[in-house]
Amino acid sequence: MILEIRLKPTVASVIIPAWRLWYSRNLTATTEHRIVSTMDKPVTHLLSLADWSAELIEKTIELGMRVKQNPKEYAHALDQRTLMMFFQKPSLRTRTSFEVAMVQLGGHAIYYDLGASPWSKGKESIPDTACVVSRFCDALSARLYSHAELEEMAEYATIPVINALTDYEHPCQILGDLMTLKEKKGKLKGLKLAYLGDGNNNVTHSLMFGCSKVGMDLSVGCPKGVDYEPQPAVLAKAKEFAKKSGSKVEIFYETRSAIAQADVVYADSWMSYHIPEEKRDERFRIFQPFQVNAQAMSYAKPSAVFMNCLPAQRGAEQTAEVIDGPQSIVFDQAENRLHIQKAILLTLVGRA
User: Fold this and answer.
1) Which of 66, 135, 143, 331 is 20 to 30 A removed from 175 (C-alpha atoms)?
2) Which among 34, 45, 81, 143 is annotated as catalytic?
3) Is 77 helix (H, G, I), strand (E, B) or coil?
């Protein structure tokens, strides 16, 4: 029987086997900084925005804006630090932004394709993988299909674990989006964001948590049905957060009510990475009424901006006239992934 010590809950508290605490106290001086006893200094992860307080979200956004304005001040902030990047899914923005962020902060990033790993071949467990990486690196980002596997990794890791996207959430993306909106609108609280399309996806879930935490109203326009609506547990949590922040979260099954008087209109792919290709025609037919086009944008405020986390398919979730038009800020959005990744790393690795 393995003795377990349950610590006082924190932002990312975990149950830590006693043998792991013993190892963390008996490291050599050269590796001691890499595994810190969680009893002495709790490890903070970024697994879900539901776990982060509004204060921590806002602090990270402000840090991202400072780093963007004064990059040279942080050029050596993560000297001799290493980020391990696990990938099961394709990536452009997430991989590039994290890798460039580590280089520009003075550190190093390792890209690791899990398709060729002992873990994926069934030869090594998630706990062993997390423990080994914790001995080598200072932080771990993981872009996985299963959110449960990410949580298991965080349970055994003794370094910060960052959700670089799972089927359930995409918190790094939404932190960058909120930073972009803070730049464009000068505030977050009191804004209304309207999301159209697939309500049961990672970006929607993270938007629901992030917006409700910072006091933004969020309306989701999506088809009816469990495959297309936000998960009930996510909706319940978001409404709880909204009640505390003085905002609201609403679900609509048509476009006009969802977008009415919105400050921000947001679209995402109708074909997330885990959706089988054979469902494409059916999903495009079902989601077509929720396409963001010029007519849909006319229901929002004249000053509204359009966002898409990218990649985007013109003629699907939005038309070319919208994503390439004057209200679109999708490339500002993409750029800010770099600056918010820096802020996330600085916050979690402890050099903020």
Assistant:
1) 135
2) 143
3) coil
Is 205 catalytic? The answer is: no
Is 173 a catalytic site residue? yes
What is the average pLDDT across 151-161?
97
Q: Which of 309, 318, 333, 341 is catalytic?
A: 309
- Maximum separation of any 2 CA atoms in the chain, in Å: 64
What is the reported pTM? Answer: 0.87
pLDDT classification of 273: cutoffs 50, 70, 90:
confident
Catalytic residue among 20, 81, 147, 170: 170
In angstroms and rounded to an integer, the radius of gyration of the C-alpha atoms of the chain is 20
Domains of the chain in sequence order: 4-169+337-349 (3.40.50.1370), 171-333 (3.40.50.1370)
What is the C-alpha to C-alpha distance for residues 142 and 163, in angstroms, rounded to an integer? 6
Question: What SS3 class is residue 292?
Answer: strand
Mean pLDDT value of segment 264-290: 91
Q: At 312, list the tokens.
A: 């985007």
Whole-number Cα distances in Å, 19 to 35, 204, 248: 13, 39, 45
The span from the CA of 242 to the CA of 209, in Å, is 9
pLDDT in tens, 130-150: 999 999 999 999 999 999 999
Are 49 and 213 contacting, i.e. CB atoms less than 8 angstroms apart? yes
At residue 38 the predicted structure's pLDDT band, cuts being 50, 70 and 90, is: very low
- What would the mean pLDDT of 258-278 be, rounded to a whole number? 92
Q: Quick check: is 170 catalytic?
A: yes
